[in-house]
Amino acid sequence: MRATDTKMVDGVPRRRILVASMAGTTIEFYDFYIYATAAISVFPYLFFPKGNPTTALLASLATFGLAFVARPVGSILFGHFGDRIGRKATLVSSLLLMGIATFVVGLLPTYQQVGIVAPVLLAVTRFTQGFALGGEWSGAALLATETAEPDKRARAAIWPQMGAPFGFLLANGLFLILIGWLGHSTAGTDTAGPFLTWGWRIPFLLSAVMVAIGLYVRLRLAETPVFARALARGERVRTPLTTVFRTSWRELIIGTFVMLVTYTLFYIVTTWVLSYGTTKRPPAGTGLGYGYVNFLHLQLIAVLFFAVTVPIAGALADRFGRRRTLLIVTAMIILYGASFDLLLAPGHATTASTLLFLVIGMTLMGLSYGPMSALLPELFPTNVRYTGAGLSFNAAGILGGAVAPFIATWLATEYGVGWVGLYLVVAAILTFVALLVMRETKDISLDGRGQLPAPPRDGN
To answer: Domain range spanning residue 387?
Structure first.
């Protein structure tokens, strides 16, 4: 069957391909989010020395950000094998490694049990999570785009993107169920209660079941026809990393900064705002004073808008182009950044304004994130596409996601929430400039040699 067949791709039902691309990223982001949630509600109390709670929170968030440092390293390794061996085998490996690392988090001893070894082990598992996720997203994006009909790539590519909101709902929904079941006090100081004694471990241990399901789906896939034809033409390169830096360095820079504001926005309206929303109001604190459960309810409502707007963004990107769609969305993010003080300042923020802040942020997130799994792969030729798309995506993760919760927490504490909005505006301006200099990729063929000069062959 041809790749453009509407129901089958080389004998594999298109529906199975799309489900596999979404199932894997859902599991990966579930694993990522349960760590992000625990970084606020569990780890500051169990894995770091007792003392200043703000210091413990910042240390926990720094450990959370360690995964973003690992992700480009993972994208280099998995990208190497994804561009040389194939997309399928690499995707299976990244999912398995992520699942093992997450399962191990659920078995770790606490600071009270082993002292400083506890945060060290936590950091190692977090690094491993990020390393595995570095190869996951780009592989899932290529699985969707390289099997899509040419004029429907952005719509096909929304399926791996749907893993982000679905994983968020699964992870935080499970935490809510456990807190309700175990009667946990969300003040977080009851370290002898069942939730902080053993209940928090359940979401991490359950990831093993989800990984088994994801592996079953992915092992039934075939290699993408675009990659198979590139191999048949002898286009495989010996060192994809060297080749992509030599032939596509401009695309690497543009892709990184195009993705920058998406990461910054997401980790501000998920990880940082959860911490800010559950910190006490002035004069005792610098936050909004919500209970953990109450604020998480607001976040779960808002993330539904994320899920709804991802496919809308895919359709818009196919209809009007990636560049034009994202320029408009990025301009809207700049306006949104200017609203932080109005909607979230402790002196006048209400539940309605807080929910509005979350809904607008998640809506813009869906519109910004939706086209990325089509756009980033389209920037690179087939023989370095896994490496190039992964490096751009994960380098943006360092510049945006890794530091966003930490910087936003520091800005809100020292200068007020309006400065967090200004931080988002700066990231959006950088993305806007990158989009202005980017070429439109909507009509680029993923299956040709004409995008960039063919690199030297390695004889394979």
So the answer is: 11-437
Q: What is the mean pLDDT of residues 410-428?
A: 95
**pLDDT value, residue 453:** 40
Give the three-state DSSP class for 417. Answer: helix
Residue found under tokens 């994801």: 214
Question: Could you give the CA distance from residue 312 to residue 435 in angstroms, rounded to a whole number?
Answer: 20
Find the CATH number of the domain harbouring 413: 1.20.1250.20
pLDDT tens, position by position, 210-263: 888 888 877 877 777 888 888 888 888 889 999 999 999 999 999 999 999 999
**Is the Cα dihedral 232, 238, 244, 247 positive or negative?**
negative
Would 154 be classed as within a structural domain? yes
Which pair of tokens denotes residue 432? 């806007």
Contact 229, 235 (CB under 8 A): no
The model carries a pTM of 0.84
For 285-336, write each residue's pLDDT tens digit: 788 989 888 898 999 999 999 999 999 999 999 999 999 999 999 999 999 9
Is residue 458, in this structure, part of any structural domain at all? no
At 242, which helix (H) or strand (E)? Answer: helix 240-247
Q: Is 459 part of any domain?
A: no
Q: H/E element holding 219?
A: none
| Number of domains the chain is built from | 1
Candidates 172, 176, 169, 33; CA nearest to 98 is 33
Sign of CA dihedral 22, 137, 107, 37: negative
Query: What is the per-residue pLDDT for 340?
Result: 96
The answer, yes or no, to whether residue 186 has pLDDT greater than 80, is no
Name the residue type at position 368.
S
81, part of any domain: yes
CA pair distance 158, 171, nearest whole angstrom:
20
